[in-house]
What we know:
By secondary structure, this protein is α+β, with helices and mostly antiparallel strands. The protein is 46% helix and 10% strand. The chain has two domains: 38-108 and 174-237, NADH Oxidase (3-Layer(aba) Sandwich); 111-163, no CATH class. Helix 2 packs across helix 9, helix 4 runs antiparallel to helix 10 (212-219) and helix 6 packs antiparallel against helix 7. The protein starts with 5 loop residues before the first helix and ends in a 23-residue tail after the last strand. The structure holds flavin mononucleotide.
Amino acid sequence: MNDPAEILTKIPDYEHHEKMNQTSPEEFDHIVQNRRSVRVYTDEKVPEEVVQKVLEWGLLAPNSSNLQCWEFYWVRNPEKKKSLVEALFNQPAARTAQEIIVAVAHPEQWKKTRVQMLKHFEDQGNVPKSARAYYEKLVPIAYSQGFLGIWGVIKKIGITAIGFFKPIPREPTSWSDMKIWAVKSTALACENIMLGFSAYGYDTCPMEGYDSNRIKKILGLPRKTQVVMAISVGKRDKKGVYGPRIRMPKEQFIRVI
Ligand SMILES: Cc1cc2nc3c(=O)[nH]c(=O)nc-3n(C[C@H](O)[C@H](O)[C@H](O)COP(=O)(O)O)c2cc1C
């Protein structure tokens, strides 16, 4: 019988060689430095293929257990876009945007993507047993919280007890843990998206100044989803960047211990 936790500890007897392409740190620096939160955009359109490509880059972000608990809504319908801008309090970053993408975390989507992972393994054939065991056994234990969160409470008690003796994953044991879990991965995809647009020479602004209930209604989202952020896209107007970038001294945040 395979230990489903083995995937975390054992190096699989499996080789997959993937070459790393040569890139330039200078170019990456330009992409990162060029990304500013832009609040006023020009009338210049963003080509459809650029948005498509950038959204695909979003999907390449690292994500917890590769369960891809996210969705990205590129709101193109004029009526929906108008309502979305209103839900974003009509802020200039939304109002003047050429395109708006809404990133949504789906804490319950793992139930579907877990099955897709297992199907993928089955089709591939040569996947280590520990990987299958992980998605078959460990994922449901880890990410289910049960009716009224009762399984989560039971897990919390068990984890606390075992945790006295050895390291053990402490979360998720509640619905709010599940939201954090899904939001983390979705936010990483958002950064891929913003840097992606920056690489193409387009600007973005991440926004959480919105009425999430209204956005969920506009997008027809189920109750158990979390709007992570809206990202507006376009070309910066000369008034688009409100000021020089401000960051506190790095020593305040980067700790080498
Ligand atoms: C999660 C998140 C939510 C944000 N919400 C808004 C917003 O609603 N409106 C806005 O103008 N800027 C918003 N911003 C942009 C920040 O104000 C901005 O990133 C910060 O001031 C740093 O500036 P920079 O992005 O140009 O480096 C948000 C940023 C993040 C990451």
